[in-house]
Structure to design on (244 residues):
């Protein structure tokens, strides 16, 4: 079982209680590790409190996870990259990435209507997520979800029902394109062999990767499945070139 709480709610008494309740994973809803951003978002804790709570959670034998938020007021790409790097140093097992959207009737909507806050666009959110996901994947930290903070009454912001797939598909697209660009030749067809679980992300949401490669670079993408290939790994071959 797992629970989500905030760093200021973590203490020895609470952790003993969670042990009795057979909780094994505690996710800390930290939003950011930047104290200025935390204060702006009305958080009742600091990065120092996050570190103290994290240490205590691990000391009591729980698996540690975090929920970080992208697109907070006055938060920049650098702030969010630094949050990811700071969290890695605390050695969590899991991360949830939350995309801030504006919901009807909130203070943030008022700020948005006054032109004082601009949420991330879908494209901006995908680009920053790609960077952050790579940072965590490189340290073998599991990304358990990438989604908006709300699915209802959304006024503006980067909401998409399949956002995680958009991010993972974009990362696969970058990998394929990098392989193609390394060749000093005009590529006609690329054949990719992956684990069956990765097929949808390779193809892209509504076959976006297949269509984009064809429309932008006139490259055909062929996807094969092989259960022997580990999830997240791939075999990429250039199978056809255009004649010079």
């Amino acid at each position: 079982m797992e629970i989500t709480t905030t760093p200021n709610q973590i203490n020895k008494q609470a952790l003993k209680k969670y042990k009795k309740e057979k909780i094994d994973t505690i996710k800390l809803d930290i939003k950011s590790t930047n104290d200025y951003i935390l204060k702006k978002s009305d958080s009742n804790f600091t990065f120092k409190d996050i570190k103290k709570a994290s240490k205590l959670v691990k000391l009591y034998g729980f698996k540690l996870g975090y929920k970080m938020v992208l697109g907070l007021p006055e938060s920049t790409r650098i702030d969010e990259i630094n949050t990811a790097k700071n969290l890695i140093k605390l050695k969590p097992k899991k991360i949830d990435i939350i995309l801030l959207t504006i919901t009807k009737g909130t203070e943030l909507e008022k700020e948005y209507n006054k032109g004082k806050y601009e949420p991330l666009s879908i494209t901006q959110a995908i680009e920053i997520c790609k960077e952050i996901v790579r940072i965590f994947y490189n340290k073998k930290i599991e990304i358990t979800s990438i989604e908006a903070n709300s699915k209802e009454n959304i006024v503006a912001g980067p909401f998409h029902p399949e956002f995680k797939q958009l991010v993972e598909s974009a990362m696969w697209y970058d990998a394929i394109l990098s392989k193609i660009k390394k060749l000093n030749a005009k590529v006609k067809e690329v054949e990719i062999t992956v684990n069956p679980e990765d097929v949808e992300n390779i193809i892209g949401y509504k076959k976006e990767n297949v269509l984009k490669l064809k429309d932008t670079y006139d490259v055909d993408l062929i996807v094969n499945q092989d259960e022997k290939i580990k999830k997240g790994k791939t075999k990429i071959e250039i199978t056809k070139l255009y004649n010079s």
Summary: The chain has two domains: 2-161, 182-241.
